[in-house]
Amino acid sequence: MLYLEEISVVGHGTETAQKLLGSTPHDRSLIQISISFAGLLLFVVGFLVFMVAFVKDREFQSFFAKGCALLHVAMALCRFYFERRVEDLAWDWPRQVAGDFVLALSWVLFIVYTWREKYD
Questions:
Q1: Which of 37, 56, 80, 104 has the most CB atoms lying inside 10 A of its own CB?
Q2: 73-108 pLDDT, tens per residue?
Q3: Does 10 share its domain with 46?
């Protein structure tokens, strides 16, 4: 289905990818199930954002954007406090935290843009 090992090697390197994929068959199956649920969650969130795009109520869109910005900031804090402690991911977390903050900033810019339209 997906080339999980190859994607992990490209993202993390060969040694780290082997460690992250688990050492026993049970660990590997748990990790694959976790990745499958993460993919399902991404699909649901994408579908939700697609549905919200057709809502004409600006207040609801502003509320949704605030929630998304808060979610990205919370994810960045989670990465900062927990992922940096994982030895194999220690070099990867600053880039991901920066990405989370950029995504949060994009939602904040959306809020500012809609606020500007509202009060112009």
A1: 104
A2: 998 898 888 877 776 666 778 888 899 899 999 999
A3: yes
Max Cα distance, the chain (Å) = 61
17 and 68 assigned to the same domain: no
When computed from its CA atoms, the radius of gyration of the chain, rounded to whole angstroms, is 18
Whole-angstrom distance, CA of residue 11 vs CA of residue 30: 20
pTM: 0.67
Q: Which of the listed residues 13, 28, 53 is the one where a domain comes to its end? A: 53
CB atoms within 10 A of CB 109: 12
CB 35, CB 4: distance < 8 Å: yes
